[in-house]
């Protein structure tokens, strides 16, 4: 990916904030517990977007501050979670004081950060002994039509998340995978595809052609209750010294 395309895609989410909120999956509770621990703590949800992961953190009784650079994504988060402290900011420049959070989470977002700048910034806001937790819902190809769906997008839909490389003061990275699934109707599946950053930046004719093929696949495989899309939820955690 060129630097221009990276920037275009990293900033594409605001344009699809509404469909993102309606169609993207949340995260399994056991994965969230593995990332944050059992005890309620102060959590920074970084790259929080419309608040998909934020919701699980609140449900687990954590005290959450949500940060994202996109005002349009944050508008969706504020509408859904009006009591959450939601701030504009980026991983490279966090709007938080030093040593003020116990855990920093990033759902489906860490790959948009510049680790060389973001990791020292995350270390700055974490208390000593605090934790960085990263999570991605990724394709599960064990079901035939799902493999067919994601194969339409070549290598844009990875099968596994690369082990994130961290630097001191972060310690070794632990990895664990959880299962997750999402029930979708036709509009839901089309929206889920339309909210992908590589689809959001396509010209209209190309995007429509792609969504047409996804619609045809849906019509072939859906039952009366739509489809169930399985995911493998890849989680990584590392403790700050
Ligand atoms: C795929 S969305 C994930 C949103 C949410 N965490 C979720 O789980 O659905 C990626 C988010 O990362 C945000 N983002 C992009 N670059 C970022 C950066 N440098 N720092 C923080 N967030 C960033 C985008 O604005 C977008 O809301």
Automatic annotation (TrEMBL):
Transmembrane residue ranges: none
GO biological process: methylation
One Gene Ontology term of the molecular function aspect: S-adenosylmethionine-dependent methyltransferase activity
Listed Pfam families: Methyltransf_11 (PF08241)
Keywords of the record: Methyltransferase, Transferase
Domain of life of the source: Bacteria
The Methyltransferase type domain, residue ranges: 44-132
Family: Belongs to the methyltransferase superfamily.
Protein name: Methyltransferase domain-containing protein
């Amino acid at each position: 990916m060129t630097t221009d395309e990276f920037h275009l895609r990293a900033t594409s989410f605001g344009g699809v904030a509404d469909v993102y909120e309606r169609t993207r999956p949340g995260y399994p509770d056991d994965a969230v517990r593995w990332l944050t621990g059992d005890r309620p703590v102060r959590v920074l949800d970084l790259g929080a977007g419309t608040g998909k992961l934020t919701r699980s953190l609140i449900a687990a009784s954590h005290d959450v501050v949500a940060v994202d650079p996109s005002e349009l994504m944050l508008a969706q988060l504020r509408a859904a979670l009006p009591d959450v402290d939601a701030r504009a900011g980026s991983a490279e420049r966090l709007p938080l004081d030093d040593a003020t959070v116990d855990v920093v989470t990033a759902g489906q977002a860490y790959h948009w950060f510049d680790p060389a700048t973001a990791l020292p910034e995350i270390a700055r806001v974490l208390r000593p002994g605090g934790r960085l937790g990263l999570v991605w819902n990724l394709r599960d190809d064990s079901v035939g039509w799902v493999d067919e769906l994601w194969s339409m997008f070549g290598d844009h839909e990875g099968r596994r998340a690369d082990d994130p490389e961290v630097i001191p003061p972060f310690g070794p990275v632990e990895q664990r995978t959880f299962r997750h699934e999402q029930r979708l109707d036709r509009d839901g599946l089309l929206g889920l595809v339309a909210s992908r950053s590589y689809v959001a930046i396509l010209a209209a004719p190309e995007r429509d052609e792609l969504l047409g093929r996804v619609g045809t696949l849906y019509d072939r495989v859906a039952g009366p209750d739509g489809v169930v899309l399985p995911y493998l939820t890849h989680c990584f955690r590392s403790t700050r010294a």
